[in-house]
Amino acid sequence: MKKILILAGDGIGPEVTKQAEKIIRKIGGFALDYATLGGAGYEAHGHPFPEETKAKAKESDAILLGAVGGPKWDNLEFALKPERGLLGIRKELELFANLRPAVVFDELADASSLKKELVAGLDIMIVRELTGDIYFGEPRGIEVRNGKRVGFNTMIYDEDEVRRVARVAFELARKRGKKVCSVDKANVLEATLMWREEITKLHAAEYSDCELSHMYVDNAAMQIIRSPKQFDVIVTGNIFGDILSDAAAMLTGSLGMLPSASLGAKQKNGRQYALYEPVHGSAPDIAGQDKANPIATISSLSMMFRYSFDDANVADSIDNAIKKVLAEGYRTGDIMQPGCKLIGTKAMGDLIVGKI
Predict the structure, then answer these.
(1) Does 278 sit behind a cis peptide bond, omega within 30 degrees of 0 on the bond before it?
(2) Any catalytic annotation for residue 232?
(3) Which of 105, 273, 323, 335 has the most other CB atoms within 10 Å of its CB?
(4) Strands 141-145 and 30-34
């Protein structure tokens, strides 16, 4: 029996993961386990990425995460902040490829901050490298130099890191529109100049059947807002991907709609670590109020069935259930459209489960 580890996390995390659990139980055939991460990990074990969580993560076939963080832990030392738990599990499991789809449901095209004709039918996949770059580079820190406090971080990649995430992007593109746009800042940053050169070489050697383009990150940010449907698959580094994927997320009208998958390398035994989570944060201001949108978490579960369990039928049934509920006019969270029926977290979860 496959094992799914639930890391509910903080804020609205427990509420939204509970709705996804209903679907897992309805489908059946999976063992569920639970552990803590983020602020919840600190409260239970004194660390945002407890040893118990680390052990259970390595024993699981897939992980479903809610969200981490909140002002409650703002005054903790840097190493103990909830976000360090998220970065820690990504690094420990070598979850190097973050898949962030930005898909606009027909029913929500009017909810976008952009004109409907710009976003209707939008389907972008952003592949973000997740375990390198400035977030993990050394040296890093804050120190005193010449009597002044100085903060510093290091942006660094090696060619293997670039090529492995690029392969993920090209393989996805082969199943989609066969277009990859690699985003960098090669005119200023040597680390990303090397990125561009390595992706160009890989494309020529292994993926010439796909179209490859390059774009500076500042232009990419503008183009995602100006003409988003020009993109199919975007591949980029950790910090650029962090920013661009949130920008793309808002094209859909709400962060509460968007899932993500973080994938590791295939191991010799065929196993692949994978973590699935909604794009949104822990939203502590609405925690416990039955206002959180569970669709991003439920869509993350759909990605789990598609990528970890190779079950497109179940994934499609979850996606279609979401579309049916939206088509009937039901909404949750911050999507306020004229004539919509606003319902709570639990009711939305129950409706989607009922359509599967």
Answers:
(1) no
(2) no
(3) 273
(4) unpaired
- State the pLDDT at residue 246: 85
Q: Are 349 and 18 in contact (CB under 8 A)?
A: yes
For residue range 179-230, list pLDDT tens digits in order. 999 999 999 999 999 999 999 999 999 999 999 999 999 999 999 999 999 9
Q: Which of 157, 185, 276, 319 is catalytic?
A: 185
Known catalytic membership, residue 160:
no
Identified catalytic residue from 110, 123, 242, 334: 242
- Residue at 130: amino acid letter: L
Does the active-site annotation cover 185?
yes
Q: Which candidate in 123, 135, 216, 330 is catalytic? A: 135
Q: Is 216 a catalytic residue?
A: no
**Cα Rg, the chain, nearest whole Å:** 20
pTM of this structure? 0.91
Is the N-terminal amide bond of 82 cis, ω within 30° of 0? no
106, 218, 285, 316: the active-site residue: 218
Tell me how far apart the alpha carbons of residues 242 and 120 are, in angstroms, rounded to a whole number.
Answer: 24
Residue 71 has pLDDT above 80, yes or no: yes
* Dihedral sign computed on CA atoms, order 66, 101, 346, 333: positive
Respond yes or no: is residue 135 known to be catalytic. Answer: yes
Residue 290 tokens, joined: 């039955």
